[in-house]
Amino acid sequence: MNLELLAQLLVSGVVLGSLYAAMAVSFGLIYSTTRIFHLAHALVFTSGAYAAVMSTQWFGAPVYLAMLLGTGFAALVGLAIQAGPYAIVERRSTESINVFIAALAVSIVGTAGLELLFSATQRPLPGFPDATMSLGSVTFTVVDVVSVVLAWACIVGVAWFIGRTTYGRSVTAVRTNPTMATAVGISRRRVYQVVFAVGSAMAGLMAQFVTLNGAASPTMGLRYVLIAFMAVFLGGIGSIWGAALGGMSLGLVTMLTGLWVNLDYGTAIAFALVILMLIVKPQGLLGRATV
Amino acid sequence: MPVFASSPPRRPRALRLGGLTIAAAFLVASCGSGASTSSTSTAAGASTSAGSTSAAATAAGCTEPLNAIFGGGGKTGGQDVTVSDGMVLALSGPGLVYGSAMKKAADLAAEQIKKACGPTFQIATGDHSNGDPGAGLREYQRLVSQNKIQMLQTSYGAPSEAIAPKLANDKVLAFNGGGASPGQVGKDNLWLTRMIFVLDPTPGGLAWLHKTYPNVKKLAVVGQKENGSEVQEQILPTLWPKLQSGGSIVVNEYAPIGTTNFDSIVAKIKASGAEAVFTTTFSDDMGYFVKQLRGSGVTVPVIGIDVSDNFFKVAGTSVKDVFAAAEYYDVKNPSPFNKTFVDGWTAKYGEAPRDIYGANYYEMLFIWWELVKRVIAAGGDPADTGQLQKALVDNPTFTSLYGGDASKSGTMTFDTKTHTISKPMVVMQLNAGGDVKVIGQIKRIDYSKDDPASALVS
Fold it and tell me: Can you tell me the ipTM of this complex?
């Protein structure tokens, strides 16, 4: 085995896995609390990227401010989707499939809208330091380091918020038993708004790093949301650390399979392992078995 | 599992509203993502009564610059002829940049030919959704049934290969100047006005790499199966050891089109000690690949087979020691035909044409005009695509935007067996910011027989 290759793939796996972990936590927080399969999270992700890019192009904003604006804009888009189509459809029907269809429609319409507004041209986000660093034979960039640090800072922050704050406990209450939570005076609407805002901001932040590593494009978000979804189920629904572990696992497996097979097959193998996990332990890596 | 409140009874109104919302959403989405809608544009100046218009034009004499190159218009020049021209292009998504250039080219050509008292081209478009063969075929069938097209300007490889078997039966004569793939070679009623994508420039690019970097032995190859695996599985493994004594391909990897994370491939290239990289990725994908390769500290030369705006946008400042072997359109070519094209494009669109796509799709309408004139001269029916194709086979040489000089326009000649064409290919040095410099000339060879070094002209 080529140890140099193994070391580089491990580092690349950690970088990719951290991104997947943060996306999984953002998606999982929303899904486990609201039970909405929030496919429009892809649109939130992409909107955050475009907000950052366009603020540099239209207003000459420095890149750090642009990234902050992009993150904030993503949170607003998430809130608007929750307060708009999701809330309306949920009020008029309790069939969860209807909300899923609304999520799918919002995602498709939103992506088409971005393409109409900005065309499908790739839009980079310049100005962030992109120096390459090395540790022995292993190389990584400044963007890699910052993205890993911020991804885990967000994950730890969300875990602390859910586990250690009063509002976090409200979120847990709604997630566990929404009827009882409402009965004791917890506003389900307010809790939904909070999880959508937090989850969307996280997705928007991660979108900045994906854009820094390449460019923004209208369809950039769907892949990450689907991976986030798989990671949540791999790790166990309702568990922040489970979602993070699921995302990290998918990132590492995708990269490490490069030791033996073509990139073509890396993602397929990662998802094959998800299926295997769901057969062996359906509640996920850190989920609890239900009777 | 959490317990939710019991559900109220279903409300039919919600279903109707939900259904309407979804239908509206998909309708808007389908418009935005370019599904089965078309735009029809008629060349400037609708056909008026044939007799009086053509008589007046002939009497007045068409004195457009094009008439000096293509001869007078009027009745013998096909002025009474209306051509229904269908274009199946990428009109949405990342390929829109190509489709847009192709449509602009056709519109400009139609307008200029009309002014030069040539045929009237009625252009209708369809979107193959960035190379989806199913979408391409559906759009083609719609253009045949609704617009009764005689001429087809198609693009990309996969949709064109799906359409090809239908052309003869539908009596449509087609041209592809964008995604000329091996699967389209020699197909009835289909003629390629571009070199075979990836296959044709590869031997020349490899020969240039060897000549410029004679000490390079270990070559890494990264490509996309969708562009044909012949290059990675046959051409490069055959030619590289012939060119370079002791040469070997140390990495040979595929990445699907649309890949944005090449980290595992980059890691393999680093670990292999490759001394150069040959890639058949293109557009954004090549941009992501080069950016991540350079970001990992790999500084070896990279040679590809494509140049595009999206590549420069994605790769940004990491474009160093990157080259491309590809067909080349020279906007500064002083030939009379090219001058008419460049001047017309600049006047109509506010900027000079940039690439082969505009040039190739402009030329096609002039090929058709020439065929119409030949069929009329022979006393035939210029609406009969069988006669038009016979005229092409009888004389496969046409005026071209490529080649020539200040005093005369260049020409291009089809190979009547393979239905392909030979156009100038070069090696270009790519620099950050979109700067491109031609540094070598290459040509097509038969890689199974010819000396690979002969693919490099200068």
Answer: 0.85
